[in-house]
Structures are given as structure tokens and as C-alpha cells.
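Section handout, structural biology tutorial.
Before the tutorial, make sure you can parse a SMILES string by hand: atoms, branches in parentheses, ring closures as digits. In the record below the ligand is LXAUTJHC, and the chain has 260 residues. In the tutorial you will relate the predicted C-alpha cells back to the input. Do not try to memorize them.
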Amino acid sequence: MSTPQLVVHRDKELMAQAAAARLITKIVDAQASRGSASVVLTGGRNGNGLLAALATAPARDAIDWAHLDLWWGDERFLPEGDPDRNITQAREALLDSVPLDPERVHAMPASDGPYGNDADAAAAGYAEELARAAAPENHGAVPAFDVLMLGVGPDTHVASLFPELPAVRETERTVVGVHGAPKPPPTRITLTLPAIRSAREVWLLAAGEDKANAAAMALSGAGEIQAPAAGAQGRSRTLWLLDSAAASQLPRSLYPPASP
Ligand SMILES: O=C1O[C@H](COP(=O)(O)O)[C@@H](O)[C@H](O)[C@H]1O
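Predicted structure of the complex:
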């Protein structure tokens, strides 16, 4: 696993724009070397802010949208089209305005979808979809995502892995149902830490004062059961993208020297 690297931007708008530019470059590079790219999206304010910035980025059309696989790190288990679903918000922020191949948009199931209201069955179904997309060298579990993005919650949750809940302790399955989440809605579907850690790069997004304590805790040696963000690492790179408010409680030893 990779040691976290930090980039701190002046404010959340600049962070979103810089992260969007970084993502464009990453996708274009992956498409140039492998013909396609795979990205895992996150919900939440910072994830949607990045997508909105990408929608207006001058270089967005450098991406070959038809050869981009989109997956989700987690989903709120609600009916299709519900405004609180992460995919509904992502569609509004970006996805509806770019020429994606619908076959490559891998939404997590909705609560009125093929698995009905059974979040555990829906999670198992998504795990099968991931396994089908994995190449043999990925050991059959999940594809080797180029970039997996995670918003960091004020309580250090990432995806729908909340401190101390069973999902964050999962070591075998790649996707699980979450019941009794402390943040609404209580029922969710989430990638697990083993699935997250199979990504080439993991980017954690944290902007705003309410994320300062979470960032400091996760980056100061807390355990992943108490602070799930601490367990989110990529195989090649783990990148924390922060704004100065979210970085304000980091120990000085971690604070990067230059902060654009
Ligand atoms: O509920 C969720 O929250 C987290 C963090 O969201 P934020 O608004 O505090 O940035 C998000 O990453 C996750 O995908 C989402 O389902």
C-alpha cells in the first residue's frame, strides 16, 4: 500500500477545479496506454463539486467519454431517480452532459431495482458485476480501477464505511449492504476496504472546516475501524486533496510545504 501524499488548495472551489484537471489528465493518460479508463465515483459535497468542475473544465473533451467505465464507491439504497441517490446527483452534475456509453455506467442497484428492497442481495449483485469486469490478473474480484475517489465524512467515513459498523471490518467480500448507517439514509451499499485497496490510485477529497478533525485523525495514525478513511489506500498512490480549512488541524509535520 502507498503512503498518503497531501495537496492543500486555498479553498474548496480551487480544490474542485484542480482535482477535476488532475482527473482529466489521469483518464486521458490511462486511455492512451490501455484504450480505456475506469474511475470510481464518490457521492457527497466534495465529489459532486469535482464533477461540476469537470463539467465546465475547458479540457473535458480531451476525454474519450465512450471508453470510460464509471463505478460507484457507495450508494444510498433508495428508489431509482431519488434525488438523494449518489448517481442522481452525479448525473445532474456531469454525467447527463457527456457522451458516455450507458453500458459502461455501472450504477449500484436501486431499492426498486432487480433485487427489490434487499440491500444485501443488491450488494452481492454489484460484486458479481465487478467480478465479471475484472481481468484474470486482477485475481477475479474487482477491476484495477485507475482512480477511486472518496469523499471523507466529518466522522471519517468513506464510501458508506462508517466507524465501528460491520462493513468496515469486512475482509472477504468486495461489496456489502450497510444497515443502520448514522447518516441518512440508514440503508446503503458500499465497496469494502479490500475492494478500495485494489485501485491503482485512491484520492480522498476533504474540503471545509467540518472535515478538519476527520483529516487530522485519519492521517495521524488512527486505526481503520475507528477512522475508515485511514484504511483507504491505493496500490500505487494515495492522494489526499484538501482545502486549507480541512487541513487546518493537521500536525505541522504532515502539512505540505507548498500549498497552491
Ligand atoms: O453519504 C455520503 O457521504 C460521504 C461524504 O459526503 P460529504 O457531503 O460529507 O462530503 C460521501 O463520500 C459518500 O459517497 C456519500 O454516500
